[in-house]
Structures are given as structure tokens and as C-alpha cells.
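Hi team, as promised in this morning's meeting, here are the two structures we talked about. I've kept the exact order from the run log so nobody has to guess. The first one is mostly here for context; it's the second one we should focus on when we meet again. Sequence first, then the predicted C-alpha cells.
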Amino acid sequence: MLAGNRRFSQGEAEHPWQDRETREGLIDGQSPDAAVLSCSDSRVPPEIIFDEGLGDLFTIRTAGEIVDDAVKASLEFAIESLHVSLLVVMGHEHCGAVQSALSALNADESLRERFSDADESAEIESDSIVVRQVGASILTAQSSELNTTDDYERVHVARTIEHLVADSSIIQSAIADGRVTIVGARYLLTTGKVEVLSF
């Protein structure tokens, strides 16, 4: 995947496995190597930025790569039924969900007051799931004196991974058994490169 991203970022994408033969060969089934949870942002399509083809990636996309029951079930399906060996949670530079959550926090100080950073799974009380999850990540970052949107994006990826592992026994056991590796990443709109995050 990183080799594909390197090709993409250098303007040398090969667009592999996008022909008629590949399409027809996948009619009866799929066996992707990786599952990717990424933002729905139209500028961040995983198949394109990793220069992958049909059948290579099982992708789930939500605004701000937020997690709900459908997202969790989709990732569990990828592990149990498709036997992916890699889960990637990918945020990105200039994320609109981060900007939206930050604006909501700045507009309503009471959202900050109701958030407890003592509980790692805490969410902000808000009608918007984006504000609840991404806003909590922003406040977590700020409590550690991380104050740039780059920091917020990275911390949000880390918190998303923590929640997935904590909330899914399937993901937990797949990681414990060595069947799956989970990795955080962040796509840079300015360069086209994906940075791998270590936590």
C-alpha cells in the first residue's frame, strides 16, 4: 500500500487491476488484503491514494472516520468473513470534521465542561455524532497541550483505534491471535503522501 501511495504522490500511479479481466475474475468473490476506515472526504479515496485496484481494499468511509455499530460490524465482517490481515484507520490533513467539531467547541463552552477526560471512552454531549467523537479527541489533545489541527487529526486516529479495539471482541481477539494488525495513518492533501502513525 505504501509503495502504491509513493507512486500516486509522485504522479506515477499505475492504476492496477482495473481492467475487464480483473472485474470478471471477482464476480464470484473477493479476498482483499486490507480493510480501511477513512474519512468520507471526496479528496481522500483510499483506492486512488494507495494506487490499488478492484478487490484490493475493503473500505468503510464516514465523516471524520467516526465509528458506529455499522462501521464496527463492517470491520468485523472484513476480519471474520474476508480474512483481511490489516486494518488501517486513516485520517487526513485539513479534515472538515475536525474543523466542524472545533467550531462547535469554541461556540459552546459548556460542551467542554461536560466532557470528562478521566474516561478514555468519554464523548461530548451533543446531537452530532461527529462533534461527540471528534470533539472528544480535540479535548483529549488539548489536555496534553497539543493545539494544532494536525495534532487533533492524529489524536483522533489514535482514539478511534482505541475505541475499535475496546468495543469489539472480534477485533481484540484477531489482534491477540496475530491474525490482524491495526495501523493508524494520516493522508496529507498537500503532498499526496500517507504518514504512518505510531502510538
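And here is the second protein, the one for discussion:
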Amino acid sequence: MPDDADAPGPAGPGGVADLRPLARAREQKAWYWYDWANSAYVTTIATVLFAPYLITVAEQAACGFMGEAGNPCREDLSVLGLTVAPGSLPSYIITFSTILSAVLLPLLGAVADRTANKKGMLAGFAWVGAGFASLLFFCTDGNWQIGAIAVIGANLCLGASTVVNDAILPLIADEEERDRVSSRGWAWGYLGGGLLLAINLAVVQLLPFGIDTSLAVRLSMLSAAIWWAAFTFIPYLRLQNRAPTHVVPESGGIVQQSFGQLWATLKDLRNYPMALTFLLAYLFFNDGIQTVIVSSSTFGEKELGFETGTLITTILLVQFVAFFGALVFGRAADRFGAKRVILTGLVVWMLIVTLALVVPAGEALPFYALGVAIGIVLGGTQALARSYFSLLIPQGREGEFFSFYHAMDRGTSWFGTLTFGLVFQLTGSYRPAIFALIGFFVIGGLLLLRVDTARGIREAGNQRPSVI
């Protein structure tokens, strides 16, 4: 039987002691560790090393040598009969993995809602994803195809595991707690990802034991896969399972039932217009955020001419600033409401992509300053989007709604990465490619302004927090 983490405590002199807040607090601490675990993949691989390294491997395949400043590779690759510039390849790979996610994750969410063993699903997807990520160690000597398979598989599993992880949030935190709990989870993620990134920085910069840069990068990516798998054991062992509630009655096995529930939810979305409006807003502004994240290392290396060590230092700075940014945004949401704080963050994102047009090449200090600005708003906007959305969705269907949410989530945006890749292909410069993302923040912000928070909470049948 599933464990009952919400059982009341023993009777005392004043009646029955309610120990549910203590039980929730213990599970919340265990839940934070999954952000700690998967952030190693997001930072070391998806944000810093994968795109520049795959471009280098693809340039070897196309030209027989690694492109560099003053002597870039001008040849294209032939991929499934299409001509692709090596510099655009990572963007297209992420786009493809996101399209697959958009098809598969909603069904997964319906399965998760009907499954008591959510922590088993969480861990299973995490461990398979880490296995895919470990294949990047073997991506070398022009074999870019191994890297493509590794990242497509890892991104799919990352999306699947975070669907389940976020569906657990409403089960372990009530409406008053969610902004705080979600923000702390993101903050732990930035600490974990930043710690491993610091270790990898030392490896890449110092090149111990006589290893070369290529091997150092591949070892760093392998360490992120191992980190992801190892720390997933903590939530797997400490979270409690709960029987599913409020599921749509369907006949047949769990897969057939899940298809039926998914179809019922799709028809029922019109009854939750505020949740649907927020999803559309999130589609745009999160695509902008994710594209900035996954393209920042490419922009820094290929457009501004920085070495890998400088890029890792910048992302490391972003990680530790984002730790404080997530906590500050969580406190601000307690005072002003999550929606207002998210909108403020989007204005800062617009300024960031505008400054990318003029940030000077080869000068580290302005690049670091841009990283600080990203860190301040990065964790806060994402953490509050997660907790804000949880207020707008009905109980017992968290998996399905978060599966729609995560079809558009971190490292898997496809409108943004497709725009970035196409603009680069047309202009040959990463500056207009990254500035083009301002449209995503503008549209996302305008849609978010249309969300009536109080109405959305009523439609979902949730309790209204004291501040919205």
C-alpha cells in the first residue's frame, strides 16, 4: 500500500496533534534533491559544453578540422538529405527532441496521474536519461551522431522526469507554501549544478594527468550523468507514494485508461481558460528563456571568442547568483504575488537580449555582467512559473497539466531554438539570432497580463493563498 504522509498525529491534551506540516517539510527537503540532481545535466551539458563541443565535432566531420577564429569551417553537413551548417546543428537537435516531447509527454502525464508509485517513475526516467547522457563520452572524431542520439534521449527523459517531479509539488505543499517550496527547489538546483560546474572548471582549465581539452570536456559531461543518477536516490528513498485521486473513470489497462483520461482532459481544457492562457504565455516566455540558456555558450565562444574556461566561469557565476535570485523572487512573491514578480522578470529578460547586440567581443567583464543579470532573473521566473501554474490546475490531474507545461520546458523549447538557428543561418551572426528572442518575452508577457489569478484558482477548485 502507498504510504500515508498526510495521516494526523497522535492525540494529545488539546486533542489530535496535526503532524502533517512536519511530514510535508520532510518530503519537501527530499524533493529539493531532484533539482540538485538534474541541474548537473542542465548546466554542465545542456548549457555549457554540449553545443560548442558538438559544433566542434560536426566541423571535424564536415571539414576534417576544428573551426577556429580566423580559420572557421565553411562546409555544411548533410543530415537526412538536408544541408545543415555545423553552427546550427545543436539548435536543430534540441528542436527535434522538443517535438518528440510535445507528442509523448501528455500521455506520460496521464499515466502518472493514475500511478501511485510516482517516485519510482521519477527515478526510472532520471536513470535512463543519465544513461543516455553518458554516451556523450564517446562522441569524438567527427561522430556527431552519437552526441545527437545522447542528447535527444537525455532531453526526453529529463522532460519526463520533471513532469513527474512537478506533479509531486502540489502533493507535498499546500497553496500557501508552493512559491517558497518551488523557489527553494530551484535554488538547490543552482547550488548542485554550480558545485559540479566548479569541479569541471578546474578539470578543463588545469588539464590534470596530461589529458587534452577534448577528453576533459568528455569527462566533465560524463560526471554530470553520474551526478544526475546518484543524487536521484535521495528523493527515490525519502518521498512517499500516494494513491491517485480524482482520476477520470476509464476502462481497460493503465495505457488505455491514460489515453481516455488524456482525451477527457483535452476536451475539458475549455473549463480552465486561465490555466490555458497561462500555458500559452509560458510557451512563449519560457521558449525565450530556454533558448538564451542553451545558446549562451555558443554565443560566448563562437560570437565573442571566449575559451571554454571563460564560458564555464560565466555559467558558474550565473549559477550562484541564481541561487540568491530564486530565494529573493520567492520572498517577493510572498509580498507582491507571483504574477507581478514574473512580469518584472520578463522585462529584465528583454533588456538582457537587447544588450547582447552590443556586448563587446573578447572583453570578459561585460560578459560577466550580462551573466549576473541572467542569474538574478533566471531561477526566480522559472520557479514562480511552476508554483503559479500549480494554483490553476485541478487536484488529481497534476501529471497531465504539468506534461503540457513541460512540453515547453527547460532545454526543450523549439520555437526559440528554431528561430535562433534560422536567424543565424540567414545572417551568419549570433547577435541578431539572440536579439530575435525579445519577441518571445513580449508576447509571453502580454498573454500573462490576461490571466485572472483569482478566477483561475476558483476554476481549479483550489484554496486561494493570502497574496496572489
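Starting points for discussion:
The first helix runs from residue 20 to 63.
DSSP finds 17 helices and four strands in the chain.
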